[in-house]
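Action item from last week, closing it out:
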Amino acid sequence: MTSAPDAQNRTLHLQAGLDRKLAWEEGDSVRYVVAELSASGASVERVDTPALNLSLAIDISGSMRGEKIVAAKQAALAVAETLGPRDRLSIIAFAGTAELCLDTLTMDEAGRMAAATAIRALHSSGQTNLFDGWMMAAERVALGMAQSPQASHRVLLLSDGKTNQGKTDRTEIAQHVGALLERGVVTSALGIGNGYDEELLGAIAEAGGGNLHDAAEANEIGAVALGELQAGRAALVERVSLRLSVPANVRAEVVGPWSHVAVPGAIEVMAGSIMPERTRKIVFRLYCSSGAPGASILLGLTANGTSPEGDALIEAAPVEVDLRLASSHENNAQPRNMARSLAVVEAWQADAIRRAVRMNRDGERDAATYYIQRELGLMEFYARNVPGTETLIDELILVQRRVNENWGERIRKEMSNTVRKRSRGEAELSFRMRPTISDQFR
């Protein structure tokens, strides 16, 4: 349901079900819930697209010197030219400290001229204080809410390096980003080149309800930045949160790259923005305890978000899922839902490959080999006879064979980006044809 007319009759849809509906009465069964989130209502072609209250946080540290800073400035200029008099723009440049270059100006002709002057004055030098840059950008957006309450409030963070000044702890930074999201500020991030920290930027984008994008080359920055801007306008529902409630005798965890918080009896997942004709699939792994045959384990799912034009609450109809305990014979003979099982393997593979990338980078390559061998054995058994999983398994086999090598950073970035976007249902905004995981090792 919606709570205000500015939601434009948008509807948030929640569907959920189990990969298998029965679990063994003796316990130790592992089952999966797959939740699907989509939205309908206002058309992406509508004239009254939401106004944007946007802040660009641009890394101008020494590593951005040369074509990167030139391309970032060109992208910022293109963003300013795309905005109109209903929109507001702030620009923050950060190196060792953060500097306010443009403060929430309306993007009429005078505003765009002021933005162009500020952007052209940027030059690279110094260290990387990413947190202060993001924080100043988010604060300007938050302050701009009073002037443009009926707008989509967003930060786009552009960086090519690792933060080495100010706050650097990934978990602490993500908590701050999540707190600003609760106030209505959505954060997306664009990683440039091979040196950025995709785990930090990924945590920021996930906690911020936004997206993480990768620009391998400087000439990709503009296309990706403009694509993110267009996506912000096209979103049907923002800041979507999904909650799974479980009884005390079930342990649940999220599978895949989603920011989440475990609270007593429930897991809350930040699902981000829902785009037209796109579905977010979120997978939960359930560890089931023993019980009497025929006993039911009742699971509840709820979801809500907000309209891009402000804080109009949009709620999905709640869903209940019933997992029943059964005898060994009945449990073993049951069918499975193939579409949900495929979603499980996609999310599971994403987790496995992202961890393998991290271990390869950290030099833990023997441990990575053992880890992937174990996950591969379990995944192959689960995926047997599930259509569509063959390529996913083949990719993991290839990773297992090569994870003991010292991969280059571009390989690590491409692999992380591929599985993240695939499992989160996000569009690739770069014009460059992305290599597959198999292509990485050719």
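Closing note: The first strand starts at residue 11 and ends at 18.
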